[in-house]
Structure formats: structure tokens, C-alpha cells
Design goal:
The structure holds two protein chains of two kinds. By secondary structure, chain A is mainly α. Chain A has 13 helices and three strands, in the order H-H-H-H-H-H-H-H-H-E-H-H-E-E-H-H. Chain B is mostly helical. Chain B has a three-stranded antiparallel sheet with strand order 1-3-2. In chain B, strand 2 and strand 3 form a beta hairpin. In chain B, helix 4 packs antiparallel against helix 9 and helix 16 runs antiparallel to helix 17. Chain B starts with a helix and ends with a helix. Classes of the chains: A mainly alpha, B mainly alpha. The interface between A and B is large, with 38 and 44 residues. Chain B: InterPro entries: CSN3, PCI_dom, PSMD3_C, TPR_PSMD3_N, TPR_rpt, WH_DNA-bd_sf. Chain B: Keywords: Proteasome, TPR repeat. Chain B: Belongs to the proteasome subunit S3 family.
Chain lengths: 264, 496
């Protein structure tokens, strides 16, 4: 099998992706060409593991790795996820045949962050289980792990601190997404735990800079901003809300009756 | 003295041989009548037999029951003596026994005329090879058995085939070759499903799940569970395993209440004695999941006979999270790091940190009507006041504590405690308990067993009745241990 052509394509592809300001259209064209070539040589999705395949598999793996990076740079969620799922067999199933890739942990780290930003915590954990305990010490993996811990605790303050320690520029895109989803979580917390809050403090707590953003959030959540620059939250009054959940009670009691009847 | 001992062990060997002879008779009867209870009687004895096996008996058994033109000898060219690694002393003993009248008579009269009998003997050989730590040799036999079972299409083989698949997977797992057999297991699962072969289905689903979980492939395992239907009439042992795997999958996916349910069922369905490895593993997961749900496991859990020692790390982690003491929690993790990693509970225990903080916060809220964030941070061993403020806000939102935050002055003010009996909580708890009791009742009804109509009719003669009664008593005594002496998880536990 002749790999020269593939190698040529691959190197121009990786080079153009690694460029600080990549030409996305050109990159995508190269990627399509690469995929066609790989598919024609029956490497891309081959399930057979043979010795002579290994070189081809390595090329395929690198192609996909850079395809993932390209998707991150282009800020495309869908193609990112698709490429990751194509790439995963190369990391896990061919583990014993291919020497480990340098990019593996970085890419998996980005993927973990992606899952976090989408609030897909269950998947985050199943994915994490696949990563060996020694590998979790790597800065790429430990970063999203720490973020997850902070989110669970509600330690949003620490998250902001942690942002500055991000291990790679590639994490930026999903960090932005994460902030967006966190902001709504924080807003939920704030409105039940504070009776009122100064506007300048709210900026800090909600990780905001622009006043218009704050006003938008306030409108969404029905917050009142009074003239002395204080946000007032509607405190729910428990006593008024107490209603007898008759629907649920009726259903439960009928279930008991049915079960009792079965016993007797 | 020595001679006497030998005599005695010889006597025992003869007894075992005789016993197996009668079991072989039962298998034959099963094949001709297709009445499953005969085979079940034999299979119940399988583990008891396994304990009695030694090289001498196995040598004689193969001599008696496996025909010399069997593939074992012709295709594989296996010399049983070599396979079993028989020592000189044992050889002499074997030679002596072969000349004994009983054995000579057995060799002359007994022979296996059905595949089932052959498979049974080979299975005994296989498990004994595993017991003798001759796993490479066991692999040969396992592959041979697998071939026989796959090629034959006989319904009378189903129960034995299930056992074959189990040990086939087990041997591969011991040799760390279990990734290679996934495809084979799947194709057999497909065949078993088409043939409505429930015994094989149950075993194969479980071995596949075990296979996946060994490599932490929770996603695949979850998909497998959602795409297959576990046969309803499986043995308790298989159900216990299945529930255990489900419990583990759900725990990783943060679905703790489901997980807890499955794990409790797994322990309930497992035998109360024996199967220590399995019970131990399930109990460990149960404990961690319960803690994650914010419940404190009952103390009895940790003081079960046999398990007490191995559960002690879990007892410590429980007491740390009960008090809500973050530093002692971290200390326990550091101390037992390796144990938790070996048990596969490590990442679950790491998640406990959050619960420990929550418990701590709850305690603070109960005891102080207002407290500054700086004090909270120092009490909970947090890094800064800001950390504490956000954590409190989240806790309020999650309903862990009932309080309000005063940002300007930097303190947390807890609301007056409301009388819990004015809320719906007691009713909800009561509902939970009622449902639990009803479920137990329903499960109990489901597992009641009635004799078949046919058998009842044939039981008119007293002799049959007597036999039947004996069988039932036997079943009650031994069904507990059936098929469970060797959980796939046992060796993991020994490794520690």
C-alpha cells in the first residue's frame, strides 16, 4: 500500500489546521480528500487488525484528531461530536496495537469539557471511567475534572479562578459555552438565596461585564431593579403556596387499594 | 499411618466415583425423558463435586466416560496425565486404583452414550483445571467444549451449554483474553435468543456485561441492557448478577436511587452463605451508593460475619461523611486509595466529597441562626469566604438548607425551622415504605413455585411422593449455593 500520497495530504492538512488563523474552507476540502482516500484504501472504518494496517490506522487516527481540532476552531458542536465518536475506537479498541497518541489526553480533555458545557453529566462520568487513573493526573484531564467538582459543589467562584489555568487555547470555545450554561444555573441559585443584591455585586457573581446582559437576565427571571441599583428577587412565600396535591394523593391511594385487593 | 490415610482417601475416591456414576445415570434419564428436574438435580451437585475432585478421580473419570476415539484424543492429541500434571506418586495410586474391582467393573460397564454425559465430565475436568491453576490447559478444554456445544443443536444441552459458556468466558478472563471472545459471545447470544434458550441467554448477557464492566465500558454495557431482555425465568443466581451489573451502571450514570434498588435486589437474591466475593462487592457498592444518596447505611451492614474485615475502609468513609468532616474524609481516601481503586469504587467515592460538604453545612445551619462566611469556610475547610458564599447559595437552591444570604454583611441567616409534620414529607416517606412492602409481597408471590400438573398426577404412588419430597428438601437446602460458588468477581477480591 502506498502511503506517500496520504502523508502528503495529511501534513498539509495538519499544517493548515495548526495555523493561527486557519482557512476553514481549505481545511475542510483537505479533510474531505483525506477521508475519501482513507475510505478507498479501506482504512478509515476497517475492523480488521493486521500488522500492515497499523501504519494506515495511525494516519486515520491523526486525520481524525486534527478534524476534531478543526471543529473546535470552527466552533461547530455537531461535527466535533461526530469526529470524536469516530476517533474513540482508535484510542480504546486499538490501544494495544497502536502506540499512544500525544494528542489523546488533550482531545479527551476537550471532549469532557464539551460534555460539561452541555450539562451531560452522566456521559461525562461514563467517559471519565474509561480514562485510567494515572492518566487523570494529566493537566488536560484534571482540568475538566476539577471544574465538574466545583460545579457540583456550587463553587462558582473557584471556577472563575480555574479559567485562568486552562491547559490549552483549544479549551476556550467550550469554556465560553460553559459560562453561558453556568450563568443560568447561578441565576437560579441567586434568586432563591438572596433577598436583594447590589447591581455591582451581581456583575461579579454572574460573571458579567455588560449592563445590558444583566438587564436581560433580570427580565427573563422577573427580577426588579430598583433605583438605588439594587436587585430585588421575588421571594416565594411558602405558606401561600401550600396546596393539597390531591391528584398525587388520589393516585397513591388508589394504588394501595389495588394492591390490597390483590393480596386479599 | 500413612498407608492408613491413603486407604481412607482411596475409599473416599471410590465413593465419589460411585456418586458421579449415579449422576451420570440421571443425566441419561434426563436425555431420554426430557424431564428437566433430573438434570437440575445433577447440576445442583456440581459445586459439591467440584470440591471433591482430585487428579486421581479426574483421570479415572475421563478413562471411564470419554471414548478413546473422542476429539480430545484424536484431534488435540491430549494426554490426560500430562494435562493434569500428575505427579509420580499419584501415578502409582492411579495404577493401583485401576486394578481395583469397582473401577474395572465401571470401565467395563459404564460408558457415555450421550453428549450430555461427556460434557458433564469435561466440565468437571475444566473447573478442576482452573482450581489447580492450570489455566492454559483449561483453555484447551474450554475451547473443545465450546466447539461441541456450538455445533450441536439439542435442546437438552441448554443448561449444560450455559455452564460451558460461563466457564469459557471465565477461562479467557483469567488469561486476559476476554476482549477477543466478545464477538463469539454475541453470536451465541443471538442464537440463544432465537431458540428461546433462556438459560444461555441469561448467562451470556451476564458474561457480556461483566466483560464490558471489566474494561469500564459503561456506555456499551448500558446499550446492551437497553437492547436485550433478561429472561424472566432465570435462576436467582443469574438475576443477582444481572442486578449487580445494572446497579453499577446506574451508579456511574448518577442515577443513584435506581442503582440502590438494583443493588439491594442483587444482595437479596444472592445466597446468604458462600459466594463471599460477590456479596462483598455488591455490599461495597451498596454502601457507597447509599452514601451518595445522602443516606447512612445501617451499621449491621459492616458487621456481617466474613465480610467485616474487608468492609472496614467503607465503615471509615461512612463515619467521615456522617459527621461531615472534610479533612477526615480526605484522610480516609488517602489511606485506602489503592483498595478503592481495586474495588472500582474510587471514582464514586471521589464524588462523595460534595455530600460531605452538604452534611457539614446542614449541621452548621441547624446550630447557628446566623454565621459569617469566614467561619463557615474555616469549619468546612474551604479555601475562602467567596467559596463558602457560592456553596451556600447552591445548597439553598438544592433545598439542602433553608436560609438566606446577606451579601453586604457577609453572613448566612438560617430560617426558623418549620415543623416537619406540617409538610408533606412524612406522607412521602410513608408512601415510600408502603410501596416497598407491597413490592416485597409481590416479589414473594412471584417466586412461589408449584409442582407441574403432570408431576402431581404421577405422584399418586407413595414411592414417587417420597422421592419428590426428598428432592424438594434437597433443593431447598442447596438451591442457595447453586451456580454461585464462583462469582466472576471472586478472584478480583483475592488480588487485593
Amino acid at each position: 500500500m502506498d502511503f506517500n500520497e496520504l502523508y502528503r495530504l495529511l501534513s498539509s492538512f495538519t499544517n493548515s489546521v495548526e495555523n493561527d488563523f486557519p482557512d476553514f474552507q481549505y481545511c475542510n476540502e483537505l479533510l474531505t480528500q483525506l477521508k475519501i482516500q482513507l475510505a478507498e484504501q479501506n482504512i478509515l472504518f476497517s475492523s480488521k487488525l493486521e500488522k500492515q494496517n497499523i501504519e494506515g490506522l495511525k494516519i486515520a487516527r491523526q486525520t481524525l484528531e486534527f478534524a476534531v481540532i478543526l471543529s473546535v476552531k470552527m466552533k461547530e458542536n455537531k461535527s466535533f461530536e461526530r469526529h470524536i465518536s469516530q476517533l474513540k475506537p482508535y484510542y480504546y479498541d486499538y490501544e494495544n496495537f497502536l502506540e499512544p497518541s500525544e494528542l489523546k489526553l488533550k482531545i479527551l480533555g476537550i471532549y469532557l469539557l464539551f460534555l460539561l458545557s452541555q450539562n451531560r453529566i452522566a456521559e461525562f462520568h461514563t467517559e471519565l471511567e474509561l480514562i485510567k487513573i494515572e492518566e487523570r493526573k494529566s493537566k488536560f484531564i484534571s482540568f475538566p475534572m476539577r471544574l465538574e467538582e466545583f460545579i457540583l459543589d456550587g463553587n462558582y467562584f473557584k471556577i472563575r479562578e480555574a479559567f485562568s489555568e486552562k491547559p490549552s487555547e483549544l479549551f476556550d470555545f467550550f469554556l465560553e459555552e460553559l459560562i453561558l450554561s453556568l450563568r443560568s444555573q447561578i441565576a437560579e441559585c441567586v434568586q432563591v438565596s438572596y433577598p436583594h443584591l447590589k447591581v455591582k455585586d451581581a456583575f461579579e457573581i454572574l460573571m458579567l461585564k455588560d449592563k445590558n446582559d444583566l438587564i436581560e437576565i433580570a427580565q427573563q427571571n422577573d427580577w426588579l431593579i430598583s433605583e438605588d441599583d439594587t436587585i430585588h428577587f421575588k421571594l416565594e412565600n411558602d405558606n401561600e403556596n401550600v396546596q393539597i396535591p390531591s391528584d398525587r394523593l388520589i393516585r397513591e391511594i388508589i394504588t394501595y387499594a389495588k394492591e390490597m385487593e390483590r393480596i386479599i | 499411618m500413612e498407608i492408613e490415610e491413603k486407604q481412607e482417601s482411596n475409599e473416599l475416591d471410590y465413593l465419589t466415583l460411585k456418586e458421579i456414576q449415579s449422576q451420570m445415570g440421571l443425566i441419561k434419564k434426563y436425555v431420554s425423558t426430557e424431564e428437566r428436574r433430573f438434570l437440575q438435580r445433577v447440576l445442583r451437585k456440581f459445586n459439591a463435586n467440584r470440591k471433591k475432585m482430585n487428579r486421581t478421580i479426574l483421570f479415572l473419570l475421563t478413562k471411564i466416560y470419554i471414548k478413546p476415539e473422542h476429539a480430545l484424543f484424536t484431534q488435540l492429541g491430549i494426554d490426560i496425565g500430562k494435562l493434569l500434571n500428575v505427579s509420580e506418586d499419584e501415578k502409582i495410586q492411579i495404577d493401583k486404583m485401576i486394578q481395583n474391582e469397582i473401577v474395572i467393573q465401571m470401565i467395563k460397564e459404564e460408558k457415555s452414550d450421550t453428549v450430555e454425559q461427556e460434557i458433564y465430565v469435561l466440565l468437571l475436568l475444566l473447573v478442576s483445571l482452573i482450581d489447580f491453576a492450570l489455566v492454559q490447559n483449561a483453555l484447551l478444554i474450554a475451547q473443545l467444549l465450546y466447539q461441541i456445544v456450538v455445533e450441536q443443536n439439542r435442546r437438552t444441552l441448554d443448561d449444560l451449554a450455559a455452564k460451558v459458556f460461563f466457564y469459557f468466558a471465565r477461562v479467557h478472563q483469567l488469561l486476559d483474553k476476554d476482549i477477543e471472545i466478545r464477538e463469539k459471545l454475541f453470536s451465541n447470544l443471538r442464537t440463544a435468543t432465537i431458540r428461546h434458550d433462556e438459560a444461555c441467554q441469561a448467562v451470556l448477557i451476564n458474561t457480556l456485561l461483566h466483560n464490558y464492566l471489566r474494561y469500564n465500558l459503561y456506555q456499551q454495557a448500558d446499550k446492551l441492557v437497553s437492547k436485550t431482555q433478561f429472561p424472566e425465568n432465570s435462576e436467582n443466581a443469574q438475576f443477582a448478577r444481572y442486578y449487580y451489573y445494572l446497579g453499577r451502571i446506574k451508579a456511574i450514570e448518577l442515577d443513584y436511587s435506581e442503582s440502590l434498588q438494583y443493588l439491594t435486589q442483587a444482595i437479596r437474591k444472592a445466597p446468604q452463605t458462600g459466594a463471599k466475593g460477590f456479596r462483598l462487592k455488591a455490599t461495597k457498592f451498596l454502601c457507597v451508593v447509599q452514601l451518595l444518596m445522602g443516606e447512612i447505611p445501617e451499621k449491621d451492614l459492616f458487621f456481617q460475619k466474613e465480610l467485616q474485615h474487608e468492609l472496614s475502609p467503607y465503615l471509615e468513609i461512612t463515619s467521615a461523611s456522617r459527621v461531615g468532616n472534610l479533612s477526615s474524609y480526605l484522610k480516609v481516601i488517602e489511606k485506602y486509595n489503592l483498595i478503592f481503586q481495586n474495588d472500582g469504587t474510587y471514582s464514586l467515592i471521589m464524588r462523595l466529597k460534595h455530600n460531605v460538604i452538604k452534611t457539614g453545612l446542614k449541621k452548621i445551619c441547624v446550630s447557628y441562626s446566623r454565621i459569617s462566611f469566614a467561619d463557615i469556610a474555616s469549619k468546612l475547610h474551604l479555601d475562602s469566604e467567596n467559596d463558602a458564599e457560592f456553596i451556600c447559595a447552591k445548597a439553598i437552591k438544592d433545598g439542602v438548607i433553608d436560609a438566606v444570604i446577606d451579601h453586604e454583611n457577609g453572613f448566612l441567616k438560617s430560617n426558623q425551622k418549620i415543623n416537619i409534620y406540617t409538610t408533606f414529607i412524612p406522607q412521602k416517606v410513608f408512601d415510600q415504605r408502603i410501596k416497598f412492602c407491597l413490592e416485597i409481597h409481590n416479589n414473594a408471590i412471584k417466586s412461589l413455585q408449584f409442582p407441574d400438573e403432570l408431576i402431581r398426577q404421577s405422584e399418586k404412588t407413595t414411592e414417587d411422593q417420597l422421592e419428590r419430597a426428598k428432592e424438594l428438601a434437597e433443593k431447598a437446602n442447596e438451591s442457595e449455593e447453586k451456580g454461585f460458588d464462583e462469582g466472576p468477581d471472586e478472584p478480583d477480591h483475592d488480588d487485593i
